[in-house]
Amino acid sequence: MATTSNYSWSTPDNTGYVKDGASSIRTLGSAVDTTLFTALGGAYPGLRLVKKQTIGSGVSSVTVTGAFSAAYENYRIIVSNCTATVSNALQLSYNNSTGSTYFHVGTYWTFGSTSIASETGSNLTSTWIANTGPGVINLYGDIFSPFLAAPTYSIGQGVSPTNPVVRYGRDTASVSNTGFTLTPGGGTLTGGTIYVYGYGIS
C-alpha cells in the first residue's frame, strides 16, 4: 500500500484491485477521522447544532426538549424571524427548575430615542431573555452549565421593531436541566425557528 506524505495514511496502489476499493476507502477514511479527532484534542471545537425546532402559529409558549446534556457544558440559543403579537418580555424557564428561583437584570433602548431604561426582577418563576414585538423579533442567548446540578446563568440579547435589549439571568436552583420553555409576557408567537447549539470543547 502507498501512503500519504504528512500522516502516512494508507492509500491503494495504482495496481490495486477494483474489488478492494470499498475497503481501501474505509481504511483511509478511518485514518483521517482518527487524525483529526486527535488533533482537536479528542473533541470538536466551535458551535455544533444540537436541536432545531419551529415555533408554530399563535402559540402562547414553546417548549424545547432534549436541548442540554453531558455532551456540552455551555449552549447558545437563537430565535430567528419569530413574530409576536404584543410588546412584552420573552421569558425563559428551565424544565427541571420550579419555584421562585429566577433573577434578572437588563437594559433596553427604544429606536429613535437617546434614553436608556433598566429593569430588575427577583424571586420569579422565569427569567427575561429579550423583548418581544409587536412584529418580528430575533434574539440569541448563552446558557452556562444548564445540565449541571448547579445554578444556571444566562446572557441574552435581542432586537424587535421597537426595542433592542440586553438581559442577564440567574436560576439559583441546583438542578440538572435538559430543556427549556420560552413564553411571551403577553400575546402569542408565530413562525420562526429556535436553534440550540453546544459549545464544543477546544
List the helices and strands and how they pair.
Elements: E1 2-3, E2 10-11, H1 21-39, E3 46-54, E4 62-64, E5 74-84, E6 88-94, E7 102-109, E8 116-124, E9 127-132, E10 135-144, E11 152-159, E12 164-171, E13 180-184, E14 189-190, E15 193-200
Antiparallel strand pairs: 1-2, 3-15, 4-13, 5-10, 5-14, 5-15, 6-9, 6-13, 7-8, 7-12, 10-11, 11-12
Q: What spatial form do the alpha-carbon principal axes imply?
A: elongated
Work out the helix count.
Answer: 1
Q: How much beta, percentage-wise?
A: over 45%
Number of domains: 2
Fold-level CATH name of the largest domain: Jelly Rolls
Mean pLDDT: 88
Largest sheet: 9 strands, antiparallel
Describe this protein's structure.
With about 200 residues, this protein is mainly beta. The protein contains one helix and 15 strands.
List keywords for this structure.
Jelly Rolls; nine-stranded antiparallel beta sheet; 202 residues; four-stranded antiparallel beta sheet
Short structural description:
This protein is mostly beta strands and 202 residues long. The protein folds into two domains: 2-39, no CATH class; 46-200, Jelly Rolls (Sandwich). It is 9% helix and 49% strand.
